[in-house]
Amino acid sequence: MMDLYLCSQRAEELKQKTGAAASGVWEGIKSTVSAISDGALYRTMLVSFGVLIGTMFSDFLKKHKALIACITLASAALMLYRIFSELDED
What is the model's pTM? Predict the structure, then answer.
């Protein structure tokens, strides 16, 4: 049977490792988002939203509705992130 001290020590080690990995992922996301220009992000959001609306009228686009919806949601989420991160900096 493992000692309670050893269990708590192992849990603390795992907590530190996952915290370091999570911060690395977060820094990667922040650098990727900051590399995308606001204009390109806005155009991507508008075009993908327009294409999403166009899926109602095209058989080809109906097959790819999930992909277009994901692109639209991702670009909208990135745009909101950029807006709120700039508000926090001020």
Answer: 0.53
